[in-house]
Write a structure and sequence with these properties.
By secondary structure, the protein is an alpha/beta fold. It folds into 2 domains: 17-236, Rossmann fold (3-Layer(aba) Sandwich); 277-375, no CATH class. It has helices at 67-74, 97-106, 114-117, 124-134, 141-154, 171-183, 201-218, 229-233, 253-258, 263-270, 277-282, 315-318, 337-341, 350-357, 369-375, and strands at 17-30, 36-51, 56-60, 82-87, 90-91, 107-110, 189-193, 221-226, 238-243, 246-252, 324-327, 330-332. The strands form 2 sheets. It has an 8-stranded mixed beta sheet with strand order 6-7-8-3-9-10-12-11, sandwiched between helices. Strands 2-1-4-5 form a 4-stranded antiparallel beta sheet. Helix 6 (171-183) runs parallel beside helix 7 (201-218). It is globular, with a radius of gyration of 22 Å. Residues 1-9 and 359-385 have low confidence and may be disordered. Bound molecules: adenosine-5'-triphosphate. Adenosine-5'-triphosphate is lined by residues 26, 41, 43, 61, 63-69, 227, 295, 382, 384-385. Adenosine-5'-triphosphate (ATP) binds at residues 26, 41, 43, 61, 63-69, 227, 295, 382, 384-385. One of its GO terms (molecular function) is ATP binding. Belongs to the ABC transporter superfamily. This is ATP-binding cassette domain-containing protein.
Amino acid sequence: MTADASAPRTQGQEPLLQVRGLKVHFPIKRGIVFDRTVGHVRAVDGVDLTIERGATYGLVGESGCGKSTLGRAILRLEEPTAGEVIFDGTDVASLKGEPLRHMRQRMQMVFQDPLGSLDPRQNVESLLSEPLRAHGLGGGKAGIAEKIRTLLDAVGLPSAALRRYPHEFSGGQRQRIGIARAVALEPDLLIADEPVSALDVSVQAQVLNLLEELQERLGLTYLVIAHDLAVVRHISDVVGVMYLGSLVEQAPADDLYEQPLHPYTRSLMSAVPVPDPVVEETRERILLAGDLPSPANPPSGCRFHTRCPWRQETRCDDEVPVLRELAPGRLVSCHWAEEIRDGVLHPKSPEEVAASMGASVRAPGAENPETDALVQGVDEPIERR
Ligand SMILES: Nc1ncnc2c1ncn2[C@@H]1O[C@H](COP(=O)(O)OP(=O)(O)OP(=O)(O)O)[C@@H](O)[C@H]1O
């Protein structure tokens, strides 16, 4: 992370990645041969974000809000329903054949579960040489061997690791192998999807430090996806918070942690314990009413209104808030962000929120019983694409 998180790192240069109006909607199919579309899961529903070269963008939000789908759509592992992904000035959707292959080489992914993403039958040497051979990189046999040794050294593993298999390593070491494999192709952008959430807390910091070191050394740009705000805090320049397929807040990391503006960000932040016992004692705790609504049938108006302690009738229920700039670099999609920031509006308890929603809270399935039942898994299974 740069000293001044809000400062542009590469003045005059265009950003490495620009995502504009990105939507990924998955059809929900029914019928004996799944031939009837009864609705759509709006996993990503109109996301705009920009990542400057050499910067780290931390994307957070609770499980199911669409973070992984967004990451996969950037890599074109998921076909967007609408919107654009501009990578290094080129619209990714316009690429085919060799240019698409080359673009894929320049964007790599680190997965949450290295055991699941590394072939258990391949030893480390084979795991690391495979992508190099596939992309014709590293020169001949000797060149590849040399490159693999350098990679192992860069991720802090001994050369004795070469002959060993993924199951012989600890979780942290396996993640180091996953990272070595991802950087082997000298990418520009690394998308790390929950890179440390499967690891012990003591190992998480080591892996995050390694990512930082590699970024510095190799000039990488990162999109780091996590459900935990604490994970992305120290490595991110900019943090984006997602709720039900949309970004609700985006800010330079220090600003966001100092003063979260969106009610959802505030509730996420209030769940992070503070190491100082005095501060911890007085820490604001915001409990949310209800569960994450179904992305197949999101609430009207502000999508967060059914759980929001600051909800105001009826504007929040009816009017979709736009992601607007409150201060330089600080984007928030809440009608009442200023009032909440200035303490003019006070939060309700989860019980009050639930009671205030009363009859207006939509019972699951009330608007679209088929869709909701499917998404919640109480009916027939959804065919996953
Ligand atoms: N291939 C698919 N077909 C249908 N629905 C999908 C598919 N992939 C994801 N979804 C749905 O899209 C929504 C967003 O999923 P996604 O995995 O992107 O969320 P996430 O925030 O990354 O959550 P997690 O951290 O649990 O992976 C979820 O409701 C999920 O069930």
